């Protein structure tokens, strides 16, 4: 619990900026702060302390991207495989799952009449 509170304090104004971008939707209360699984915060802090850049494999699509994640690569599970997602500043405030699509779009069916007449 302490780590989560620390992350909330450390993220501070960056989180407020990310959530207060003028998005017209009902979001999470600023009083509560962003949700992020604690083990992700621990892993990123350990990598930052060691100065390493390694792919972090995660199943947590629900976690909010925090400013301390910028520059790291997460392998986010899409239900079948892990999709590599490189975190940039524009992604702060979004969820990890938004960048790993779960469904593959194979295109719309062609028009049968057009194919028969040719």
UniProtKB/TrEMBL annotation:
<dbReference type="InterPro" id="IPR002222">
    <property type="entry name" value="Ribosomal_uS19"/>
</dbReference>
<comment type="similarity">
    <text>Belongs to the universal ribosomal protein uS19 family.</text>
</comment>
<dbReference type="Pfam" id="PF00203">
    <property type="entry name" value="Ribosomal_S19"/>
</dbReference>
<dbReference type="InterPro" id="IPR023575">
    <property type="entry name" value="Ribosomal_uS19_SF"/>
</dbReference>
<dbReference type="InterPro" id="IPR005732">
    <property type="entry name" value="Ribosomal_uS19_bac-type"/>
</dbReference>
<dbReference type="GO" id="GO:0000028">
    <property type="term" value="P:ribosomal small subunit assembly"/>
</dbReference>
<dbReference type="GO" id="GO:0003735">
    <property type="term" value="F:structural constituent of ribosome"/>
</dbReference>
<keyword id="KW-0689">Ribosomal protein</keyword>
<dbReference type="GO" id="GO:0015935">
    <property type="term" value="C:small ribosomal subunit"/>
</dbReference>
<keyword id="KW-0694">RNA-binding</keyword>
<dbReference type="GO" id="GO:0019843">
    <property type="term" value="F:rRNA binding"/>
</dbReference>
<protein>
    <recommendedName>
        <fullName>Small ribosomal subunit protein uS19</fullName>
    </recommendedName>
</protein>
<keyword id="KW-0699">rRNA-binding</keyword>
<keyword id="KW-0687">Ribonucleoprotein</keyword>
<dbReference type="GO" id="GO:0006412">
    <property type="term" value="P:translation"/>
</dbReference>
<dbReference type="InterPro" id="IPR020934">
    <property type="entry name" value="Ribosomal_uS19_CS"/>
</dbReference>
<comment type="function">
    <text>Protein S19 forms a complex with S13 that binds strongly to the 16S ribosomal RNA.</text>
</comment>
<dbReference type="GO" id="GO:0005737">
    <property type="term" value="C:cytoplasm"/>
</dbReference>
């Amino acid at each position: 619990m302490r780590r989560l509170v620390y992350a909330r304090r450390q993220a501070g104004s960056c989180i407020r900026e990310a959530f207060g971008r003028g998005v017209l939707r009902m979001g999470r209360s600023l009083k509560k702060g962003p949700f992020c699984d604690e083990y992700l915060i621990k892993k990123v802090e350990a990598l930052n302390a060691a100065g390493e850049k390694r792919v972090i494999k995660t199943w947590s699509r629900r976690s909010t991207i925090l400013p301390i994640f910028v520059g790291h690569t997460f392998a986010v599970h899409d239900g079948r495989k892990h999709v590599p997602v490189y975190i940039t500043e524009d992604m702060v405030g979004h969820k990890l799952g938004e960048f790993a699509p779960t469904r593959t779009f194979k295109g719309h069916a062609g028009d049968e009449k057009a194919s028969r007449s040719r």
